[in-house]
Amino acid sequence: MNTVKAIYPGTFDPVTNGHLDLIARGSRIFDHLVVAILLNSSKNPLFTVDERVQMLTEATASFGNVSIATFQGLLVDFAREQQAQAVLRGIRAISDYEYELQMALMNRRLSPELETIFLMPDGKYSFVSSRLVKEVFELGGSVEGLVPQFVIERLRQHRT
Ligand code: PNS
């Protein structure tokens, strides 16, 4: 029987409920889903890679077919190493589309057999991003319901 393994790559700085919504959807479609954190991101992350691995591991503990990994270099090379057939990415709004299409087509050029699958998170997360969560929290606003409770704790620890 053919099984389908997918990679869900990203920065996850930190994981949001929007990411988790997508992971839940991906875990229902794919036999195995690898959530892969990019090392050496140019985005100057707030959380270390270890912290992001810990948060994602805790947040996805209830999914039997989801694992957490890190990667560096090209995503297509990591996908090949993992023997994955698909890349999962989320599209929240039309504004995400252009960047996602560019990446998907570049990845297709690099690795024609690797398919990018787009899923939409629940509409209630369409405005949620890691960047805005960090900004709102830093400026004293509430991020309740946008990230898991333990992520809020970690954000507090980073402030002190
Ligand atoms: O969560 P993000 O920051 O939107 O994720 C971006 C990510 C990690 C998916 C993308 O930057 C990536 O795949 N980087 C790995 C390097 C690579 O393969 N670059 C070419 C992609 S077209």
Radius of gyration: 15 Å
The low-pLDDT segments are: none
Distance between the termini: 52 Å
Query: Quick check: average pLDDT?
Result: 96
Structural class: alpha/beta
Q: Please give the share of residues in helix.
A: 40-55%
Number of strands: 5
CATH topology: Rossmann fold
CATH class placement: Alpha Beta
Name of the CATH homologous superfamily: HUPs
User: Count of DSSP helices?
Assistant: 6
Write down the domain tally: 1
Structural description of this entry:
This protein is 42% helix and 18% strand. It is an alpha/beta fold and 160 residues long. It has a single domain, classed as HUPs (Rossmann fold), CATH 3.40.50. A 5-stranded parallel beta sheet has the order 3-2-1-4-5, with helices on both faces. Helix 4 links the parallel strand 4 (86-90) and strand 5 (115-119). The protein is globular, with a radius of gyration of 15 Å. The mean pLDDT is 96. The structure holds 4'-phosphopantetheine (PNS). Residues 9-11, 38, 74-75, 103, 106-107 line the site of 4'-phosphopantetheine (PNS).
